[in-house]
Design goal:
Length: about 210
């Protein structure tokens, strides 16, 4: 998971939440590679439920500690070596496991997905595998908010990795409708230190095509 301190991820979710929720109540959201994202608590406080997947047990423990949430911990029989951390109110459930060991048979499907620093963090050679997994986790009414970046790859190799629009289309276009929501200049002094000269942040809304 790529840190969202400089990605304005919370701002983007807040800005586009109505588009993602689309009038629904109690949407079940997936956060792939969730880290300790504060937006998980924010969504839960708004009446939604959140399921996150994160390889780092330390990040999960820090999330609950920093958000002052009590939780339970148990093993996940379907995923050897995995643990499940659940807030005492049941609104936030975090799986500590490899993302590719996670599946709809373990946790069901989702009405919303917030891809905040996930696709841009994984190795580009794993993107098709990632896309196949994410599509398999989308319920029929799922609305998937995807955050990507554009920059000159000859100047910086990532992460976060470059994800051109055509790559989004190649990965998801067969199964999903793809709607561009936002394109903004996200370049700061931090990115200048990477050696790049521009950074464009893009937000896409993906929905399953009706069969």
């Amino acid at each position: 998971m790529v840190s969202c301190a400089f990605l304005s991820c919370f701002r983007l979710l807040e800005k586009h939440l109505d588009t993602v929720v689309n009038g629904r109540k109690g949407v079940r959201f997936l956060f792939p590679l969730c880290g300790k994202a504060i937006d998980m608590k924010w969504l839960a406080d708004m009446g939604h439920t959140v399921v996150g997947v994160e390889i780092s047990e330390i990040a999960i423990q820090h999330f609950f500690s920093e958000q002052n949430l009590t939780y339970t911990e148990e093993l996940v029989p379907a995923i050897p070596g995995a643990k499940l951390f659940k807030s005492s109110d049941g609104k936030i459930t975090l799986y500590q496991c490899n993302l590719y060991d996670f599946s709809s048979s373990t946790a069901g499907k989702f009405g919303g997905i917030w891809d905040r620093g996930s696709l841009v963090a994984i190795n580009p050679c794993d993107r098709q595998r990632y896309a196949t997994l994410i599509i398999s986790l989308m319920d029929k009414d799922c609305r998937y908010l995807l955050d990507t970046f554009l920059y000159n790859p000859s100047l910086y190799k990532g992460p976060p990795f470059l994800v051109p629009d055509e790559n989004v289309n190649d990965l998801f276009g067969k199964a999903c409708n793809i709607q561009p929501l936002e394109s903004t200049d996200a370049f700061t002094e931090k990115q200048r230190s990477w050696g790049i000269d521009y950074l464009t942040e893009k937000v896409h809304l993906l929905t399953l095509k009706q069969k």
